Amino acid sequence: MKLEKYYEDLSVQHVGTERSRAYYMPMDADGKGTETLLSGKWKFRLFPSPEDVDDKMIGGDYDTSSMDEIPVPSSLELLGYIQNQYTNVNYPIPYDPPYVPADNPTGVYAMDFTAAKKDGRKYYIYFEGVDSAYFVYLNGVFVGYSEVPHSPSEFDITGKLVNGSNRLAVIVLKYSDGTYLEDQDKFRWSGIFRDVYLLDRPENHIADFAVTADMHGSVNISFLRLSGNPFIHASLSDKEGNEIFSGESRGDVISFAVPSPHLWNAEDPYLYTLELSVPGEKIVQSVGFRSVWIENSVVLFNGKPVKFLGTNRHESNPYTGAYVSREDTLRDLKMIKAYNMNTIRTSHYPSAPWFYQMCSEMGFYVVAEADVECHGVLYQEGGSHQWNYDTIARSDDFLPMILDRNERNLEVNKNNPCIFMWSLGNESGYGKCFEETAKWIQERDDTRLVHYEGATHSVVHGRYVDDRYLDVDSFMYPEVSFMDSYFPDPKHSKPAFLCEYIHAMGNGPGDIEDYIEVFRRHPEIMGGCAWEWCDHATYEGDDEKHGSKFWYGGDAGEFPHDGNFCLDGLVYPDRRPHTGLIEYGNVLRPVRAEIREMKDDSIILSFRNYYSFISLAGINAVYEIKEHGKLLAEGTIPLKAEADGTETASIKLPHFGTDDAYLNIRYKKGEIELGHEQLLISEGVKKDIAIGKSGKVHASETDREYIVSGDGFEYVFDKRKAVLLSAVVNGKEKLASPMEWTLWRAPTDNDRKIKLQWKEEHLDKVSSKCVSSSMNAEDELAVLSFDFHLSPVSRQPVIIGTVEMSVNGKGEILLSVSAERDMNYVFLPRFGAAFHLTSEGDEKCSYYGYGPYESYVDKRRASYIDRFDSEVSAMHEDYIVPQENGSHYGTTEVEVGSLFAYSSEPFSFNASYYTVEELEGARHNYELKPSGNLEVHLDYKMSGIGSGSCGPQLMAKYQLSERNIEWKIIFSFR
Fold it and tell me: Which GO terms describe its biological process (predicted)?
């Protein structure tokens, strides 16, 4: 079929479409919707290219019985028609704008519907989202063309609709010239992926309108486009249904004032209801009174400084692709709200048009982003070159397209109070296209801020930009130290927003608290949005042990692809929370406590309310005091501090023993927990760890081994490697293989950069060498001393020191390490001892340390110190791509399987049925094979997690980088 090459013409984005308008669904005078949902079962056939399409298929009398039947909305790739592809930066097609490949998968959709056409009515077809470009036909007649996937397009079909049966046909192309602006980090799904409607409207109606309502009560209703000359009645009611205003217009602006309005904000999302009526039709629009502006480099919302803390959110579903239903969206929003986030950035395109109403109702600040991303230009000329970044941004040819996408984003969503900032797009360089677009938005809407990170990026790389029409400086993944130094510099006058930070890929993010602290140190920092909400993946069936099987980039055999970089969310594809989400939610808790004063018999606490607009009334601080896991006292404190205020409360203290005692507080609103924290209120007596003489020991040696035995045990130590070779207790061997000294962990996704250095230094291939040893055995104690080196293959020793293992008659082993690290090496993943214990497969674990979630030096705010009991199998965090997981920081006591260990100084431990090598080698969780043993790591320390998969290197304070290592721990076998 010969189609007009609109899809390769940068000057043509739409043909036959209505001008963009505010999103609404009109109703009749009785409040019944007049739309007909055309989504459902459609006929479909795929062709290799537009030229291969049979032109008879768009005709009204074509026999569709031989065509497939598919659901609409849907993504063709998940229906098996087109190969799945995930790519981040690389374009999926050659970079040759405006042209697209000759082999361009093209789908023909067809459906029949019945219409009762009436005189004096107008009829429209409304598409909420089609990817990438599409031609529309009704009864064989061309209706129009459009090519912005994530913004609605509307077609007037009044003259083409017939009374009775009608045939709607849509030809959808996977690629168009718009593909060059749709290079978002996502699966490249195509098809009709949002709903399609038939709208039945009176001839005289409101086509487009804008409503603004500021914090002072001023309301303006502008009628931007009318069909005919309707008589308009407007009324505004409060949430209780009380009419506040009633007025009429022939299309002129309606302005009025509401005295002392109830203001809208994310904490108290109070909405009024506006009804706009014409004869035979009415439109209902929610109205929120709010104002946002900048004063002294600080963003004020309704006159108060607000921290905008939330997440980037793609629309992605592992079962339906780009189609995300209202029910699934509501589930997302409820989860985001439950984890204390108040902001959503619609990365990197507009969400479904009804999404914004949900956000207004539930209470979210929204950064509304346009459907623009073209970072694939970096790979011109054979490599990633920063000087190519502005290629499209500076092109006059692309200006109409970028303007159009921003215009549609604004016009469709303009009446939603949740939107406080427009975003021009993402990672597309900077130049005339964005300068002109920002200027247009400022002139079109002065009630919101304008954002675009690309300008800041260009400045960083030494290019001049005209960013006067951008209201904020935007950053991605800066170091905390950079943000700390940014605002003392007087040349920085705009507020700062971290549009992306704390990359949540795999096990992470690990440095959330540090960012929140820097946000709160500097009022000029608005906040930031985590990258990102959900893992992107496709569902590929079930696995008996691991549940759903999910595929990521490359699993479908596509090229190019970016592997598992799409698995970077706070939740799994099916929306199970990652531990990173639980961590983030607790760091964002709206209340925090600190010790104001310690007395002999009581403690005075100060509670800080981090809400900007609402008090803590209705929230209780439910507390308990524990010493080494033993409950000593408990109670409840009703809170009432005003917004951004503090209050104090006193708690009577019990008598403490010699261990650390903690005050644990949970903030609860009814049965809903908003967060928790732990305060050390009594520091225990620190004792040097030692083992007592208890029963006789028998010691002997061979050329290679030391053998120590006692009451029911026999231990064999390797003179060559300074490790325990065998541990027989009551006649049973407890070690499946010898203990090992280890530096390696299965790299996390956030180790993806540093692991290259670790691998270069062969830290994954170390061996221990004992250069000398001795044994001093008495009747009740045997002391084994080893001078040892821990060395990577082909490299000098990374650790040199002394290991001492003292064994008493009860079989307790005091392990003492005094060593020095070679400072020429990069910081270490971990240092500790690995035990491969014989296993029955259902071991239990009891520990005193940070739990119940996996915890690390920089990822422990969701956890707290207490005594926890768990099955070992439940301690495995089942990341889609296996990696280091399940460690517990700050432990002083652990019993797992047959091993018991404790120390006076905190250590980390990990218990799993998978070896480090298995975790590192498997590409998917369902490929993991248990070792048959219980794999236990006792670590002196492990480096933190960070967010280095896309962010900065792990902060120095979280690195295992010290020169001197002093470690003592006691372990035994049961």
Answer: lactose catabolic process
Neighbours of 823 (CB within 10 A): 10
Instruction: Give the angle 896-897-903 at the CA atoms, nearest 5°.
Output: 35
Report CA 559 to chain centroid distance, whole Å.
Answer: 26
**625 closest CA partner among 864, 967, 419:** 864
Residue with tokens 């950064």: 367
Task: Determine how many CB atoms are found less than 10 A away from the CB of residue 468.
Answer: 10
Supply 425's token pair. Answer: 């797009």
Distance CA 712, CA 729 (A): 6
Three-class DSSP category at 91: coil
The two structure tokens encoding residue 434: 């964005």
Per-residue pLDDT reduced to its tens digit, 569-606: 999 999 999 999 999 999 999 999 999 999 999 999 99
For residue 587, what is the DSSP state?
H
Q: Which option is the CATH number for 698-973: 2.60.40.10, 2.20.25.90, 2.70.98.10, 3.30.420.10?
A: 2.70.98.10
Active site residue 500: yes
Please tell me the predicted confidence (pLDDT) of residue 462. 65
Q: Is the pLDDT of residue 457 over 90?
A: no
CB 86 within 8 A of CB 562: yes
CATH architecture of 311-587: Alpha-Beta Barrel (3.20)
Q: Say which of 18, 147, 281, 500 is annotated catalytic.
A: 500
Alpha carbon of 471 to those of 445, 466, 630: distances in Å?
A: 13, 12, 54
The 3-state DSSP class for residue 24 equals coil
701 is catalytic: no
Instruction: Check pLDDT > 90 for residue 388.
Output: no
Give the contacts of 76 (CB within 8 A, at least 6 positions apart). Answer: 46, 82, 105, 107, 174, 189, 190, 191
| Residue entry with tokens 């070679």 | 822
Architecture of domain 205-292: Sandwich (2.60)
Q: Over pLDDT 90: what percentage of the chain? A: 95
Cβ neighbours, 10 Å, residue 966: 12
Query: Is the peptide bond prior to 279 cis by the omega test (within 30 degrees of 0)?
Result: no
For tokens 């006789």, what's the residue? 696
Pairwise CA distance, residues 391 & 387, whole Å: 8
Residue 689 CA neighbour count, 13 Å, CB half: 21
Domain 5-202 maps to which CATH number in 2.102.10.10, 2.60.120.10, 2.60.120.260, 3.20.20.80? Answer: 2.60.120.260
Tell me the domain boundaries of the chain.
5-202, 205-292, 311-587, 591-682, 698-973
Q: Are 509 and 947 in contact (CB under 8 A)?
A: yes
The active-site residue, picked from 128, 373, 427, 532, is 427
**311-587 and 591-682, same CATH topology:** no
Percent composition of the chain: helix, strand, coil (DSSP 3-state, to 5): 15, 40, 45
Cβ partners under 8 Å of residue 410, min gap 6: 368, 422, 441, 444, 445
Asked if residue 380 has pLDDT above 90, the reply is: no
Torsion sign (Cα): 540, 546, 547, 552: negative
Most distant CA pair in the chain: distance in Å? 108
Q: Is 767 in contact with 722 (CB distance < 8 Å)?
A: no
Pairing of strands 698-701, 672-682: unpaired
The set of residues, in sequence order, having a beta carbon less than 8 Å from that of 559 and lying 6+ positions away, is none
